[in-house]
Amino acid sequence: MKIAFYLCLLTATLHLPTALANQKVEVQHYEAQELVNSGKILSLDVTLASIQAMCHGKLIDAHLYQEQADWRYEVQIRTNSGLLVELLLDARTGQLAQPTRLPSSCTPETL
Q: CA-CA distance, 83 to 59, in Å (whole number)?
């Protein structure tokens, strides 16, 4: 019985670093500001300006996190047609990471 317990504990311990490495780590506002100031990522305002030109709507929620070595903005936009769109953006470039193309519910801003 003790051997089974120790084997389970050993297995869990060996897999813990891998599990932690795959977690999303959200950053605080001051940390995000430091990343922007150092040039490692674009500000959320700059990123949203480029995305909203292609997917016009109201920002509902946004989070910055690091997943492995990549910085990502995860944003939710309520489109002008009322649909909720979730986008994953590369925080370094402001480009769309997922989905690889904008959903059909996104419409460009009209002037």
A: 12
Which two structure tokens, joined as six digits, stand for 29?
């506002």
For residue 109 the two structure tokens come to 């801003």
Entry pTM:
0.70
State how far the Cα of 77 lies from the Cα of 108, in Å rounded to an integer: 13
pLDDT digits (tens, 9 = 90+) for 30-68: 898 999 999 999 999 999 888 877 788 899 999 999 988
How does DSSP assign 20-68, residue by residue?
Answer: HHTS-EE--HHHHHHHHHTTSS--HHHHHHHHHTTS-EEEEEEEEEEET
